[in-house]
């Protein structure tokens, strides 16, 4: 897993505005690695991340628990994420 977590997230509580859930903010620093994966516990499930780098391109597969949204940060840019599994291709 890259540096702690590469996600920040918030949770929508029924009948309330967005409230922060326990969050981690980190940014992937792969060094010389071309592929990393990991799992981080969250109060509503697990956050799973797989990162594959080819040159300057990054393929990220991220799975967030139900009701959780987040952001993937790569090279100073933010990529929004939703609950469920998604693939992000960054060129």
Note down, in words, how this protein is organized:
The chain is mostly beta strands and 91 residues long. The protein has one domain. The chain is 0% helix and 59% strand. It is built from no helices and eight strands. A four-stranded antiparallel beta sheet has the order 2-1-6-7, with no helix packed on it. A four-stranded antiparallel beta sheet has the order 3-4-5-8, with no helix packed on it. The protein is globular and about 35 Å long. The protein starts with 6 loop residues before the first strand and ends with a strand. 19% of the residues are buried. The N terminus is likely disordered.
Q: Could you provide a short overview of the structure?
A:
With 91 residues, the protein is mainly beta. It is built from no helices and eight strands.
Helix/strand layout:
Elements (H helix, E strand, L loop, with lengths): L6 E6 L5 E3 L14 E8 L2 E10 L2 E8 L3 E7 L2 E5 L2 E7 L1
Antiparallel strand pairs: 1-2, 1-6, 3-4, 4-5, 5-8, 6-7
Whole-number radius of gyration?
Answer: 13 Å
Task: Give a quick account of the main beta sheet: strands, pairing sense, barrel closure.
Answer: 4 strands, antiparallel
Number of domains: 1
Mean pLDDT: 76
**Helicity range:** under 10%
Q: In sequence order, what are the helices and strands, one letter per element?
A: EEEEEEEE
Helix segment tally: 0
Order the strands across the largest sheet as they lie in space.
2-1-6-7
| Proportion of residues in extended strands | over 45%
Counting DSSP E segments of at least 2 residues, the number of strands comes to 8
| First and last CA, distance | 21 Å
Instruction: Give the overall shape, derived from the CA principal axes.
Output: globular
Which consecutive residue ranges, at least 5 long each, have pLDDT under 50? 1-22
SS-based class = mainly beta
Biased composition (Polar residues): 7-20
Region (Disordered): 1-39
């Amino acid at each position: 897993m890259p540096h702690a977590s590469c996600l920040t997230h918030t949770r929508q509580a029924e009948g309330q505005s967005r409230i922060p859930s326990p969050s981690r903010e980190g940014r992937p620093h792969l060094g010389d690695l071309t592929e990393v994966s990991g799992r981080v516990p969250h109060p509503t499930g697990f956050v799973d991340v797989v990162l594959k780098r080819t040159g300057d391109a990054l393929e990220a597969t991220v799975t967030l628990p139900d009701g959780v949204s987040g952001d993937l940060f790569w090279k100073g840019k933010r990529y929004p994420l939703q609950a469920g599994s998604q693939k992000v291709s960054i060129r």
